[in-house]
Design goal:
Elements lengths: L5 H5 L24 E15 L5 E21 L2 E17 L5 E5 L6 E6 L5 E6 L7 H5 L19 E9 L13 H5 L3 E15 L4 E10 L3 E3 L9 E15 L4 E19 L2 E19 L1
Antiparallel strand pairs: 1-2, 1-13, 2-3, 3-4, 3-5, 5-6, 7-8, 8-9, 9-11, 10-11, 11-12, 12-13
Length: 292
């Protein structure tokens, strides 16, 4: 399948059957006691490119990530949640090699307590487990990213922009590669000024669905030199695009598909300054669905 058609295929089930020109207010206001299970399926393609343009390593991967959040209370300060990363399963292979399977389903599960306002902004976050490395992914519990909902009601063809934080938590297949893995591990989250656009709104009586597209370019980031290097550093850039469905009945994003592109250039010192030592390119397609 051509990469240019990825979104059409991934989102065929998201095309609305009818159109309604009404407006809807997007708010995160789930009732106390509500429990939501969020499941992501993702596909990853990663290449390691030398300065002369040669690809020296290419990997393909596929996996899933499961997260559950429970509404503890609805307070004047916001909605209190308990968010748990249930499991991560991933299998990958270099081109032409056998599959390697990784599964993180045992032992203590990463968990956090969040306080979230009606516009889905995290007002407070606290790790309630020993593993705080997963906190960016736990903060992005609803759609796989952090972005405030619009202040005003939205309707068909309405757009808004918002600062969006995307935690890059999916494995790449190069995470254990010497020299490469430590840089990837430091690429925890990227920030973009994303544009959200309403494709259509469907009124189903007790539940109204808003079909929304988003696109944005990551703000370039520089990762400072690591202590175990001779002053090398890394430059990270990329973009995100996709489509999502917001449900007023569920008070959250309930389905969608996102595509991330990421470029990490490792820069090493030279007598004249620095040069690109190698480049890591990743393409990640993530599909989201929720259930109780």
């Amino acid at each position: 399948m051509a990469r240019s058609t990825w979104l059409v295929s991934a989102l065929a089930v998201l095309v609305p059957a009818m159109l309604d020109a009404q407006e809807v207010t997007l708010r995160f206001a789930p009732p106390a006691g509500m429990r939501v299970h969020v499941l992501w399926h993702f596909d990853v393609r990663t290449t390691l490119v030398e300065p002369d343009g040669r690809t020296t390593l290419s990997t393909a991967g596929t996996g899933s990530r499961s997260l559950t959040y429970r509404v503890l209370a609805d307070t004047s300060a916001g909605t209190a949640l308990e968010v748990t990363l249930d499991s991560v399963r991933f299998r990958w292979r270099p081109d032409g090699a056998l599959w390697t399977t990784l599964a993180d389903t045992g032992g203590p599960r990463p968990q956090a307590e969040l306080l979230v306002d009606p516009r889905l902004r995290v007002a407070a976050a606290r790790c309630s487990s020993a593993d705080c490395a997963s906190l960016p992914a736990l903060r992005a519990f609803a759609g796989g990213f952090e972005a405030p909902l619009p202040q005003e009601p939205v309707g068909q063809a309405r757009e808004w922009t918002a600062e969006t934080v995307v935690p890059l938590s999916e494995p790449t297949g190069l995470d254990a590669e010497p020299g490469v893995g430590p840089w990837l591990a430091r690429t925890e989250a990227m920030i973009t000024r994303a544009t959200f656009a309403v494709d259509s709104i469907v009124d189903r009586g007790s539940d109204t669905l808003a079909y929304i597209a988003l696109r944005g370019t990551f703000l370039p980031a520089i990762l400072a030199a690591r202590p175990d290097t001779d002053g090398s550093r890394a430059r990270v850039s990329g973009a995100v695009a996709g489509r999502l469905i917001w449900s007023t009945g569920w008070h959250t994003w309930v389905s969608g598909a996102l595509r991330y592109t990421l470029q990490l250039q490792v820069l090493e010192r030279t007598r004249g300054g620095e040069r690109v030592a190698y480049t890591v390119n990743s393409e990640i397609t993530s599909r989201l669905r929720v259930r109780q």
